[in-house]
Every structure is written in C-alpha cells, then in structure tokens.
Amino acid sequence: MKYSYYPGCSLHSSAKEFDISTKVVMKELEIELEELQDWSCCGGSIAGGVDHNIGMALAARNVVLAQNQNQDLLAACSGCYNKSAKAAQALENEQERAKITSILTDMGMSVSNQKIKVRNVVDVLVNDLDIAPKIKKPLTGLKVACYYGCLLTRPADITGWDSPVFPMSLDKLAQKCGAEVVDFRSKTKCCGGPILVPQEEVAFEMTKKLLDEAKSLGADCIILACPLCSNNLELRQPDIEKKYNVNYNLPILYITELIGLALGIKPRKLGLDKHLVSTKPVLAKVS
After folding, report:
1. 0.85 surpassed by pTM
2. Which of 260, 257, 262, 287 is nearest to 274 (CA)?
3. CATH of 131-286 among 3.40.50.11810, 3.30.1490.180, 3.40.50.300, 3.30.499.10
C-alpha cells in the first residue's frame, strides 16, 4: 500500500516524534509513504473561524494535491485528518465545491474529479493491517490510558471507522501490543486545547481532570494521536503540577511510538528521547 503522506505543521515542529515514529512504523509494516509535495497548513480550527470558505479551501488544497498524485491522503495528526476529511466531503457537494474551486483557482490550482480517500494513521493501523504477527517485544505489564480527544473519531459522518461515543481503535492496538488498557472513561472528553490561550485556567482544569483519572487508574502513560492534546497533557503538565501542587510525571506517547516499541524498534529511533516528560519509566517497565 502507498499513500500521499500529509504531516501537517505540528509534526514538523512540536510533534516531531509523531512524524518520526509514524514513518518508521509504517515502513516496518510495509506501508509506503510519499510525502505530499508542496503541502501547506490545513488551517486547523483557526482559519475556519475567520472565514469558512477560505478555511475549507486551505484544507482542500492538500486534498487536490493528493488527487494529482493519484493516491489516498494519509494524515497522522487527528486535527489535520479531521479538517482534510471535511474538505474532501465538501468537494463532493456542488455548492461547497463551487466556493472552494473559486478560491483554489485564485491560488493557481484546478480541482480534478479524481476520487481519493482521506485516512488517518490509526484507521489504517487498526482496520487495514494486523500488527499482531509483527509484534516482537510484547509490552507485558504496561498499563495505558487511551485518549481520543475531540477530533479523531468525530463526527461520525466524516470519520465513520470507529464509534464517536465510545471508540476502541487505540485500545485494540494497545492490546495487540501486549499492554493492559485501563478503563479510561474520559477518553473522548476535550482536553481544553482550543481555549488554552483565552481561558488558560479553564483549560488547565480540563486537562487536570484527564491526568487525575489516568493517574488514579494506575496508568503508566497516556496514549494518543493528536499533537494539540499532547501539548496540553505533556507540555502543560509541569505548569499544572505547579499550579495545583500535584505530581503526575505521566509520560504522554503517540500510538505509533507504542507500536514501535512492540515491534522491537529502538526507542531513540522512534523519537522517544524528544519528550518533555521523560519516557524512561515506560521503557523501564517494558525492558
């Protein structure tokens, strides 16, 4: 299998370990990734808040580039995936397509009728592949909390490959890796990422609830697939510890890093040395 790979902005900056581990794991599983040529920011949630049509066109631009490469578009970041999938659906709507096409024409691009799908890495890993036969080092004894956040499996008409209410794809992948999955009831609750700047205290409280539950369940780490969620849960973890006088020291790993460890890939090759919250406790548990 071969995909046009769209890393997005975060995976080339604050979430480099997600990009690194995605590429290494997919290669190990014999999935070929061809980075999307001349890709650009999908606009995230910010561009759409300024102008819906421009925001949709920004994401659609990458879909059109994948159409030109005649390959399905694969995104690792749940936010990039969600926005790109919405743009692909909009291109199927006559009225939306006309608005988007007009803006893309001003960019010097033409929209083709080539049909492609927008996929997420988690979707491909759990639904297209069986990683079990590839597991070389089962993560026996490791307890993980699987966190999906707002965008990975919602809304259902955009995603459709897992339950938007009680998703299980990350849980299944972690279990195939040999890890014990805790009953993390807050798996789809918002981490507060979108309101971190304007309402920091509220965002901290939302993130704290997630960390509190994972810690109370005895989780050794939280597993996710969203750089924005990782920013809140990992990069802001020391700030929350200081503000509330608590101590978590809870590693936050991307699902591709977890799978990579189970595949027997060296931690440094997966980017596990790039985390703010040390991953050494996880490595000690599975060594």
Report:
1. yes
2. 257
3. 3.40.50.11810
